């Protein structure tokens, strides 16, 4: 009887294995794949001909009409989808006229710097509210039959950005690392975070969740493993990854998190009354009423306006187009008490790889120069901005995970290469988002005078991609033994010990290790870690160090403001490529 039962149970497993093997042997690059959205046909990726590329797959009903300023609705269809071109970018403001050619010249931008600012301004993008699409890169015919999945969320200050930027093309990671790469769009600025007191907010974050659900339900047909989905993102995308980790505790879906240069603990969230004020400023400009008007009537009127008219009514934001709309406290998806939730362990306890760039401020200084504002801010200001805006939140988020017994790795990006330098005076260093061209293996258009990729950059890129893919394949243990041809694995992060991984330190490949206090000593708060969680007999219960000065000098006119207060202006510029 027992033997018969074992035989019965073994048959489905054997049949499944045969099905997976058959799919691999029969796979044709770009073949049609059945999805909940309909049958999707793809094509070979441009620079990786064995990778199947599927672009512009709708995962939500177009958010137009009564669905504008409303939660996303799942899209289901049966009509064939031509997945050979990207979908539209979600509506976003473009570059403001207050950026002059003289300012651009005085900013000491390189060709790479100009290209970066053009990407921020979304030159040449095609916009539409029918933008909730995602993209898939996969190579099922080789390697694992069920591949780990990396789901990318772009940055842009929750104001700009898209999944079709050439910097984010997933072909190289899918080709080299035997994973499935997915990228998704989500609504931005007032369309994604409207502040409407008569409706649901944080729609952009809900878009991201719906994309995760689509991946869970459909990625197996692309050769992916729905039980091994890792979210990764940078800047606002990194913060999105972290927001997700606190919002969906009852149904995580994902297996790991990689927030790069952005966390829920960063520069804070918008309060509902502040968000409502932004909403009514726009509605008033459009003749739809103000805070004294009937809320439902205001919303109804706003839904009748052309999206371009709404964008024109947004506050001007210079080269970034940043308008102030963003994640708003609703205590459903975005919370007011992240430190308390962290202390209570009220978040998804899945492995985390978190970090930041060595000189995040390098990009923001370039933007300030282009906007003619560089003389207003001192070196001390930028140092405080770098520390309080990025280093300390990354340290705190890593410590939170460690304190709760979650496998955690922490990195700091140091890579500086000829083709990633965006300003020469001051030197941009390893600026905010400078790791992304290396991670995605993007070298820029051939017709621009951008320096060639160096051998060191190529080696580091291979190592970098390998590390992220290794984490996705086995979030709990993969990095512990990852060598990438250099080193003997990454130690799990322990504050106060030599466990901070310095990526591309001195442009060398491998896990150069350092104690976290080398960079965290100025942080006023990094979250207490019980000594028992540190292991190895350490008694270093927390990493705090000396708090930074309460004031930071702003060079113009000797004006002084608090360190955190100084972040308010630049907080609006938290964006990425």
From TrEMBL:
<protein>
    <recommendedName>
        <fullName>Carboxylic ester hydrolase</fullName>
        <ecNumber>3.1.1.-</ecNumber>
    </recommendedName>
</protein>
<dbReference type="InterPro" id="IPR029058">
    <property type="entry name" value="AB_hydrolase_fold"/>
</dbReference>
<keyword id="KW-0378">Hydrolase</keyword>
<comment type="similarity">
    <text>Belongs to the type-B carboxylesterase/lipase family.</text>
</comment>
<dbReference type="InterPro" id="IPR019826">
    <property type="entry name" value="Carboxylesterase_B_AS"/>
</dbReference>
<dbReference type="InterPro" id="IPR002018">
    <property type="entry name" value="CarbesteraseB"/>
</dbReference>
<dbReference type="GO" id="GO:0052689">
    <property type="term" value="F:carboxylic ester hydrolase activity"/>
</dbReference>
<keyword id="KW-0732">Signal</keyword>
<feature type="signal peptide">
    <location>
        <begin position="1"/>
        <end position="17"/>
    </location>
</feature>
<dbReference type="InterPro" id="IPR050654">
    <property type="entry name" value="AChE-related_enzymes"/>
</dbReference>
<feature type="domain" description="Carboxylesterase type B">
    <location>
        <begin position="31"/>
        <end position="369"/>
    </location>
</feature>
<dbReference type="Pfam" id="PF00135">
    <property type="entry name" value="COesterase"/>
</dbReference>
